[in-house]
Structures are given as structure tokens and as C-alpha cells.
Automatic annotation (TrEMBL):
Transmembrane segments: none annotated. It comes from Romeriopsis navalis LEGE 11480. This is PhoX family phosphatase. InterPro entries: 6-blade_b-propeller_TolB-like, PhoX, TAT_signal. It comes from the Bacteria. Gene3D superfamilies: TolB, C-terminal domain. Pfam families: PhoX.
Length: 630
């Protein structure tokens, strides 16, 4: 569930304004009927190849040079036509060279033999049952193979971003504490053992399979842990993770789940809708994070004091959310850990790579209109830190991006040592708790809802800018005003991800695909994954043109060609990407199919007009056993 509000009142120069000046000065993006989308992509690909070769020469490596050479056509499958995907919007459509199966829909037992919910319209799970079942709102995920190399068995971590009351509870608002617990237990994430048995994937028993939800004990680490910003006079245990959107994974084999629109679950229990009054009044920092008296309408504050903004005993409960949470998929005895050095924003996801000196580097988007792009660089080599019992995600530097008109940019360190920040904050813990406010002070560039990030093997970083219909001027990184369909930004970071400068370009503008043919049209890019061969998988979340459902496309970043490989069902979102080591099996998700309305779809159940549709994972393979996307 997206927060449509704008909370950034900093007045910082927006990306679209920078881009407009850049286009005017350099004429980088020439718009005209004679310029094809593929030609535009190819032009930018050539520019980026020069940068890759130059970097490879500087670093004395041969890998980048090899990857800088365009390969043969990477897209050897038949695109899903619009006509194929709109004939029956109640079921998905897939390229004829591919096939799919359904895995772990909402209500699947975490352990085989446990309680199950199959979408019966006359009932819902109990809160206790839901705590033992796969949640709702499938989103970001990753597959951790058994023995690190298995293509047929492992642990699948799946985020559960949100479930509307009408879908999850069968009513518009909770009527009891039991209703709230059910809702809370459907959020969070599932860690579930899966195995390919007889050419079909299914959950299997494992001591490490578990649900992590809003009432699961968790802990904080890093600069904010143990500080006043996380303490309540109620002295309640730190519990839970919520609105788990996109994700990341680390070189040391752990899963990172990201808390996005956490503000929407808080509200004022004293608020009277008729008089529009209550006892809670937001301060400037709470407004910057979008807190309001009614939140997103979940109603948790009425039955759970943790989420009641008007309850002084839980004044800092809100600060316990908005972090990136690390989970060990192979050890169910470990508490999830919220890594506070990564900052507190509406985290859409994190793409982790290894930079110069073996440092762990994470690229993160803050998904709200006019918010920012961030980067974290660990203090030292990640292997060395772990050998000393230190987490690479607890010590390091956090940066926010500032884009320039000439296609360059700067990473501005978010630190109490900066006089601009020191004038407003007292400690680094306070800075990280209110990261958005600190980034405002530094003059970061407001963007068009930065969502997923992915780092290609050649080192380039792709950012999904989903949309911004409220943008009034163009600028650096924001090519259109308004920008209702979104775009994808490409970044090349200096010093092998550890520098403080970068270059940028915009190779993918969704609006330009609508006239390019049925195979390419898309809007609202969201999920991204770059494979080792130069393919970019693009998933969508929003209003597609030409009556299309949300979809997954594959782009050849060498040629710019795009083909649709999968189309979902009515009113869903296509999201989440995970892959087996051999890249012959891909897992994606359909989220909120039909928005929970059985008249729109009953997927994954057969169409009957009655069964409640359920979020689920889709397992995709090529019929000839080839690489996914080829």
C-alpha cells in the first residue's frame, strides 16, 4: 500500500529541474518521432560501455572489459501480446516458451500438516493459525540454496508487505484485538523450506522454517541501539517488523527485509472523525515521516497501545520501525536484527554489492514522492569485520545522493560531523533515527519515488523511479513533469562503489514505450533484477496502458530491446525476484490479486466467482530447460 502524500517540504532542488537544465545544455535526450526506443537505449549503452572500459583499465581487471562487450541477442522468447493478456484477466499469461506453477499462497502451512486457509469466503484464519501460515502481500524475496549450490532445495524468504482489512479480515475495520492480531500476524515475512519433488516445488519440513511478524521478538543493533530514541516508559519488549516491501541479500548469506510504509499502521485512538479532533498532535519530524491520526485505516491503534500515537507510554514505538532487518535463513533460533546504521526511512529495498577493499556497499531507495537515493559503505572489508565478530552493517558511512545537471552527482555523508547537521541534531543516533530530516539539511535531490535497486555484474546500478504525477518541473534524474508512468535511472559509481561521486543517465522512460508496440508498453517500473548476461528484469506496479494487467518484462541492456515475459491477473502487482543458482528457475510474486475481490479473479484457485483470491509465488521455468529470460 503506497503512501500518496508528500512529506518532503525541504525545498531542495528536485531531480526534474536538474534534468531539464541538463537536457537543455547537453542535448543528451533528443525527443522526436524518428528516435526509436531501441536506438535511444543503444546510444546510452554505448556511452556506458566507454565508462566501463575506462574503469576496468583503471582497476587493472579483465572481468569488466569482458562484460563491456555486447553479446548476441539475449531475448530468444516470444513476447506476450496484449491480446493474450487481456482476453481473460482472471488468470496470468506467460510467453509460450515458458511455463509456471503456483507456490505458497497466503494461508499455506509453514510446516507441512499445519493449519491451512484456502480462500474460503465464509471464514478467515484465526490469529493463532495465521502465525503458522504464509502471510499476505507477497513482495520482495530471495532463495538461499541448500549447501549454497542446490538448484532443487533451499530456504525461500518472502516479504509480506500489506493486506487490506477487506481482503484479510473480510471487513473494513477490525472489531476486536483478535482481528488486529490476525492482521499483524499476516504481515512481516515467511522463511520457508522448499524442494523440487517430481518436477514440482512444495514446502517441506524444516526447523528453520518460521513466520516473522509484528509480534515476533526482534532486536536493534548499530548506533541507535540502546538509546533514548527506542525506549518507552511502558518498558515493552521490542517486537515486530511491518510493511516489508523489497529486500536484499548479503555476501555472507543472510536476508535483508525492508520496512517501507510503517507510518500507516499508527494512529490516534482518541481521534473523532466527525469533529476531526484528537489528543495527538504531530511534530515536524513525525510529519516528515507521514504519521497521521488515522494512518492507512488499519485501526490497530484501537486495540494495541503500541500503535497508539496518543499513548505517552509508547511514545517511541514508532521509532522502532523504518529500518532494514537482517534475518539468518539457515538459523531459526536467531532473532531478526534491525541494522540502524543503514538509516530510518521508508526503505523500499537494498541492493548489496562488494566494493573496493572488500567493503559491503548497499544502495537504497526511500519510496515516496520527492524522496532520496541512499548508499551505505561498511567501515572495512566485510570478511575481516565478520571474523572479528562485527557486523559489516553496523559500522560504516551513510550517504544521500545529490544529482548535477552535467550527468554527474555527489554522495553526501549523513554525519553529525557536518555543521549543517550538527546545528539540528545532538548525536549520530538522533541523525539516523530521523535520516530524512538530516538528508533535507544536506540538500539531497528529491526523486520520483525511488523503489528497487539492482547492481549489474559490470558495476552499474539501476534504480526504479516508479512515478510522480505531482511533479511540476523536470530536473536531474526526473525527465518528465508530471511523470505518471515513471522511468529507470542508471548510475555508475566511482572508486568501485566506495567513492563520493557518480555519473548518471536515464535509459528507460516508460512513457516512451506506449507508442513503440504491443511488446514493449509498460508503466510504473518497480521490481528490478539484473542478471549476469546483461538482461534487466522489470516488474510493474500501477496503471498499465491498453488494459494490461501488471507484468514482468525483460530488457536487453546491450540493444535496448524489451519483451513482455509474464502478465498477471486483474488488479494485482507483479513483484519479487528470486533465482536458483543455475538461473533455470525463477520465483516471482503476484500481490493482492483482484485487490481481494473474488468477482475480479479467484487466482490461484480455479475461476468460480466465489473463492477469495490469494497472494502467491509463481515459479517460472523454460519448457526447454534453458536460462530464464533467454
Amino acid at each position: 500500500m503506497h503512501d500518496d502524500q508528500i512529506t518532503n517540504r525541504s525545498g531542495n532542488r528536485p531531480f526534474e529541474d536538474i534534468l531539464r537544465a541538463s537536457m537543455s545544455r547537453r542535448n543528451v535526450l533528443k525527443r522526436g518521432a524518428g528516435l526509436s526506443v531501441a536506438g535511444f537505449f543503444g546510444t546510452l549503452a554505448g556511452k556506458n560501455l566507454l565508462a566501463k572500459v575506462a574503469t576496468a583499465a583503471t582497476e587493472g581487471t579483465s572481468t569488466l572489459l569482458a562484460q563491456a562487450t555486447p553479446t548476441a541477442n539475449l531475448l530468444n522468447f516470444t513476447a506476450v501480446k496484449i491480446a493474450d493478456s487481456v482476453t481473460d484477466p482472471k488468470v496470468p499469461s506467460i510467453s509460450p516458451e515458458y511455463q509456471y506453477e503456483v507456490l505458497i499462497p497466503w494461508g499455506t502451512p509453514i510446516q507441512p500438516g499445519g493449519p491451512e486457509y484456502k480462500g474460503e469466503p465464509s471464514k478467515r484464519p484465526t490469529a493463532a493459525q495465521q502465525a503458522k501460515q504464509v502471510g499476505i502481500g507477497h513482495d520482495g524475496m530471495w532463495f538461499f540454496p541448500k549447501g549454497e549450490t542446490s538448484n532443487t532445495e533451499g530456504m525461500l524468504c518472502v516479504n509480506h508487505e500489506f493486506g487490506r482489512n477487506s481482503h484479510l479480515l473480510g471487513k473494513d475495520a477490525p472489531e476486536s484485538a483478535e482481528d488486529v492480531r490476525l492482521s499483524q500476524h499476516a504481515h512481516g515475512l515467511s522463511v520457508i523450506a522448499i524442494k523440487n519433488v517430481g518436477d514440482k516445488w512444495k514446502p517441506v519440513a524444516s526447523k528453520n522454517s518460521r513466520r516473522i511478524h509484528v509480534n515476533t521478538p526482534v532486536t536493534h543493533s548499530g548506533p541507535v541501539a540502546g538509546t533514548e530514541f527506542l525506549k518507552n516508559s511502558a518498558n515493552n519488549e521490542v517486537k515486530g517488523t511491518v510493511n516489508n516491501c523489497a529486500n536484499g541479500y548479503t555476501p555472507w548469506g543472510t536476508y535483508l527485509t525492508c520496512e517501507e510504509n510503517f507510518n500507516g499502521y499508527f494512529g490516534d485512538s482518541t481521534y473523532d472523525a466527525d469533529t476531526e479532533t484528537g489528543t495527538w498532535e504531530p511534530n515536524d519530524r513525525q510529519e516528515r515521516y507521514g504519521f497521521s491520526s488515522t494512518g492507512f485505516g488499519y485501526g490497530w491503534e484501537k486495540y494495541d497501545p503500541r500503535f497508539d500515537l496518543s499513548n505517552p507510554a509508547y511514545v517511541n514505538e514508532q521509532n522502532r520501525f523504518g529500518w532494514i532487518v537482517e534475518v539468518d535463513p539457515m538459523d531459526g533460533s536467531q532473532k531478526p536484527v534491525k541494522r540502524t546504521a543503514l538509516g530510518r526511512v521508508k526503505h523500499e529495498g537494498i541492493a548489496v554489492t562488494v566494493g573496493r577493499g572488500g567493503r559491503a556497499v548497499g544502495y537504497m531507495g526511500d519510496d515516496q514522492r520527492f524522496d532520496y537515493c541512499y548508499k551505505f559503505v561498511s567501515k572495512a572489508n566485510w570478511r575481516s569485520m565478520r571474523a572479528r565478530g562485527l557486523s559489516p552493517l553496523d559500522q560504516g558511512k551513510l550517504y544521500v545522493a545529490k544529482f548535477n545537471e552535467n550527468g554527474t552527482g555527489e554522495w553526501l555523508e549523513i554525519t553529525i560531523k557536518n555543521p549543517k547537521i550538527a546545528a539540528e541534531f545532538k548525536t549520530q543516533a538522533e541523525v539516523l533515527t530521523y535520516t530524512r530530516v538530516a538528508a533535507d539539511l544536506l540538500g539531497a535531490t528529491p526523486m520520483d519515488r525511488p523503489e528497487w535497486t539492482t547492481v549489474a555484474p559490470n558495476g552499474n546500478i539501476f534504480w526504479a523511479m516508479t512515478n510522480n504525477s505531482r511533479r511540476e518541473e523536470t530536473g536531474p534524474g526526473s525527465p518528465l513533469a508530471p511523470n505518471p508512468d515513471g522511468h529507470i535511472l542508471e548510475m555508475f559509481d566511482t572508486n568501485n562503489h566506495t567513492g563520493t561521486t557518480f555519473t548518471w543517465s536515464i535509459p528507460y522512460i516508460a512513457q516512451e514505450t506506449h507508442a513503440a508496440g504491443d511488446e514493449t508498453t509498460y508503466s510504473d517500473p518497480d521490481g528490478l533484477w539484473a542478471d549476469p548476461d546483461g538482461r534487466l528484469f522489470i516488474q510493474t506496479d500501477g496503471g498499465q496502458k491498453k488494459d494490461l494487467n501488471n507484468q514482468m518484462l525483460v530488457a536487453d541492456t546491450n540493444t535496448g530491446e524489451i519483451r513482455r515475459i509474464f502478465s498477471g491477473v486483474a488488479s494485482d502487482e507483479i513483484t519479487g525476484v528470486a533465482i536458483t543458482p543455475d538461473r533455470k528457475t525463477m520465483f516471482i510474486n503476484t500481490q493482492h490479486p483482484g485487490n481481494g475481490d473474488p468477482e475480479k479473479t479467484n487466482f490461484p484457485a480455479p475461476t468460480d466467482g466465489v473463492t477469495i483470491p490469494r497472494d502467491c509465488t509463481i515459479v517460472i521455468t523454460r519448457k526447454d530447460g534453458g536460462i530464464i529470460g533467454s
